């Protein structure tokens, strides 16, 4: 029997139900210029004082597992390169910045030399100014050229909010330069009547990779003047382009370089990143170009107090009687409420949109009990809001009108919120880079700041709050992406052929996998080869073959049966588990039951209801080894990496009573199996190793299954992934290896680079996995160590002590981690 751990999308909905049920039962930023919010007077309380108030009382104090004090740091100034125009330097000085930090001047020098450069320094270190100074100077040169439009620059941001914030910053900085600098946002929110003006007259266009993919590149003849004059491409927050999304963006950038070459331009790429490992290598993988690295942060930093916070155990019991902790969402709502009462300007970062809404509602309700005016100073910020709503919230936070905000990562990325005193992070955000990015939102004016990470009931979060050295003494991760993934590359080859016929010399740009894919695309009738190259053959737009942020396939529409109203969509890959017949679906605080899932028309029909239970899909998974790329001995066992085919079928669902998790019943389902060809890492153990670990046949399946769950939970510490991006299977006797085997695979067609990273960090990864299981205080396993919220087998069987012994024996003869290629 195989025990599986399939990528799914139900955890946030289940946590939201849990929070609603129990929460009330438990009592310098971009421009380097310090600013105080309007109407704010007096000195701020020190971060240590704020933390003392939050942790007053014996029960609260016990929740802090570690406090890290990071001292203030002095800055190091330099002078701007002499090629920066004096008008630009004067405008910068007028904004209150007399001299640049050393890293800003260094990055500007590389840009002016025509070298692509990535600046990877801390939050609020002035990365924007490092690229704006050379960009504005070059745009001024172009504005004075006799050929009309002159030089142009393109800015790419991962979110609309960041692009809008950057336009405001550019307008403020460039105001003394007159109308020679014409910044404009071009995205899905841009009115159609403004788009033509942007194409014809803007010389600094701010957009996102999605609009570049679907709007600008397919219409490149209309952008010919802009592209012909393109000198710089700025890629902000480039560390966010990882996994499948990053791989798509890498191919979009190669298409951009190809179209630019058609018009005679060869833009320089300027990338800004949070501190990351090997930023030049990651930036080169993203752009396909050699990139120079600037990572010595010369900016000053105020004192930072960083606390790790573990919610307490409740009297509730979950699956198989496991103890249950209070949710991070409920705990964060309490902290945001208390910070607001203290007058501390704060942002709480939450992983889900639903979580952000819940935290803001809970905080507002509790504040309203004592001060209704204070309740109005707390709000939520997430994707899905109207553009004018997002801008209004950003202005209110910026001015100090709002004291507390519960936000998704849409606010994480560079939006200028100078003046914040504290940040609360509801659950480890998946990478150290994101953790420091979120923590850096506070204290951006150079003053002291408080950051608190609230642990979720999850193996990785629990490990981190009890092993602070894994956060504070380790470098950030290497960004993982795989532009050569054939499932990513193929639709971009089609899109490129639709933009301009593909030729043999073009294939070098798209990577070594491109030549082998072209015959397959011809055979599928998507491309046709002629003497002058490969041509797109269809009437529909080639750019619509792929959603660069999606998982592939047509999304399933969720429709209210009685009204026909579209409530939302769910990725096709997640639909079998998320919106099967009988599933409980949450939408904007309302609960619906799925009455029918029509796979042919990609529609799930739902009706509003208030069931006293949640639902959890159960599935079966088998995995077949297609090809082993590489393997190394682990004592008598083996560690392998290669291609696999995963076959999964949702076979039933459980109804669980809210709060307690008690199983009320199981209903069979008749859904077709799904197959996924992807990449995996796997390890085997021999009979001798099992004997040495005292693992008998009765507990073997549970030991393997527990080790699989915990290893999936711990992998985000070593690869830039989320546990929902990966899956796993454990088998007491696998037909391809003929041994007990644990597989961990990428949950995306063709792979995303996560399993490969796991292979190259396997010793450290599985060592941390063993520590996480062994150090958990529970007796037989719980969500903090070996239970998984997405287990298709209902977390059965699991054997905690057997998993510890098994991993101990496996690691006893583990070699050094193999180097990455």
Automatic annotation (TrEMBL):
One GO MF term attached to the UniProt entry: helicase activity
In this protein, which residues make up the domain named Helicase ATP-binding? 108-294
**Which CDD domains does the record match to this protein?**
DEXHc_Hrq1-like, SF2_C_Hrq
Annotated stretches, region: Disordered: 26-51
Q: Which SUPFAM superfamilies match?
A: P-loop containing nucleoside triphosphate hydrolases
Could you tell me which SMART domains the record lists for this protein? DEXDc (SM00487), HELICc (SM00490)
Among Pfam families, the record links this protein to: DEAD, Helicase_C, MZB, WHD_HRQ1
Report if keyword Nucleotide-binding is assigned: yes
Keyword entries, A-Z = ATP-binding, Helicase, Hydrolase, Nucleotide-binding
Q: What is this protein called?
A: DEAD/DEAH box helicase
Boundaries of every Helicase C-terminal domain copy: 331-487
